[in-house]
Amino acid sequence: MGGAQRNARKQKQKQTQAAKAVAAARGSNNDRAKVIVGIVVVVVLAGAVIGGVLYQKQKATQRAEASIPPRTVAAANYPVKVDDGTVLAGKDDAKVTVDLYEDFLCPVCGQFEKRDGTKIEQQLEAGAIKVRYHMINLLDDRSDPPGYSSSAASAAMCAADGGKFPSYHLSLYDAQPQEGGRGYDETQLAGLGKALGASGDFENCVRGGKYKDQVAKQFATAQGNPALQQDNGQGGKSFGTPTVAVNGKLVKWSDPNWLDNVVKTGAAG
Amino acid sequence: MASVSPRLLDAIGTLVRLGLAVVWLVAGGIKAADLNQNYLAVKAYKVLPDGWVSPVAAAQPFLELALGVLLLVGVGVRAVAVLSAVLLLLFIAGVAQSWARGLTIDCGCFGGGGQVASDQTQYPQEIARDIGFLALAGWLAVRPRSWLSVDGWLHGGRPELADDHGGSGEPGAAHGRQPGDDGGGSEPKPAPPASAQEGR
Fold this sequence. Notes:
- The complex is a heterodimer.
- Chain A is built from nine helices and eight strands.
- By secondary structure, chain A is α+β, with helices and mostly antiparallel strands.
- Chain A has a six-stranded mixed beta sheet.
- In chain A, strand 7 and strand 8 (about 250) form a beta hairpin.
- Chain A starts with a helix and ends with a helix.
- In chain B, strand 1 and strand 2 form a beta hairpin.
- In chain B, helix 1 (about 5-35) packs antiparallel against helix 3 (about 50-75), helix 1 (about 5-35) crosses helix 5 (about 125-140) and helix 4 runs antiparallel to helix 5.
- Chain B contains nine helices and two strands.
- The chains are: A alpha+beta, B mainly alpha.
- Chains A and B meet through helix 1 and helix 2 of A and helix 2, helix 3, helix 4, helix 6 and helix 7 of B.
């Protein structure tokens, strides 16, 4: 590099760069950049954390403010009553009793109800079957906050007392909360019964969690019943939801014709 | 050491930085898309008190995304790498304690998570994978220099100066030495000579 050329260039740049370069040589420029970078990093990370928490809070608030859309079962002219920790539905002269084990948070139960709910209602209405609903709290710890399974099951039994069980049951599955998300709280569960016209002491029954103990007891009984264990798809046997049984024998509900077969044969088949 | 070309190290650093960025962006993105699932995944570790599961599960995906973005653009690479390493160590600890306690869960590292059958746990693989990511973070914590980073741009297109100075723990790097080169001059040199210093 030619000395003259270099000096000339230096001269030109000196004016603008001198201060900066001196500062750089002392490290202050570098320090300032570091401070800026540090601030950016802290702001971005803190923003992400706070933003995530606020976003989730806001979503939960939105869900808390929503009401559960009431759905009505058109024809439900069969008796429904709370019976020993379960809800027993169906006409007295029906020959077969189907035991149905469900959790209101269980997604497969939701699919099961979507596929077969109407058919079950039709058979109840026709007097071909009775259904004993065991509403259990298997997934209590899978809602945020935990406990939706218990609250919903207890509320559904309150709805049976209030004369609106079929519609209440349908409505809850129709607007089923997601696992890991917020379930419905007791205000929302009470609101649904009110919208459906549940009678009597419905609201206090829901808010007091009147049937929660019985729900937990049903779950424990079902879980301890060897006849209700089935392959869990994970190499073992366990109790899961939904489970369908007739006379204490498991029904393979994955067969879409299971209900017709039960009606025809009067047995689990 | 001196035989390793600094350009090669910069190239590796760039790949490492972008690689770790992608890891965080993918992991955080999948989780952010299904926050309910992440709640279940976090809960399954059975480590946090009840009240903490929800906020941690909500914040974690966005923290991962933020780390990914910062690495992608190359802001504060060393600090972000150290934080990444801390987070990865927490993840490894979480998986290890599940393993040790006999829980049967999926780590939920890239979505999923929660309970699995006892023969479907993959604790060794999960820990090995996290250790691999930890190695990436470790590289960047030790040698944050790479191409195409805001850190470099902030220092006037001379990432070498910036990170050498604060970075590789080389005494007398960059500014310390250059004025001497220039005969007590007041002007830092352009890039190539500076980067040669990286040759250690």
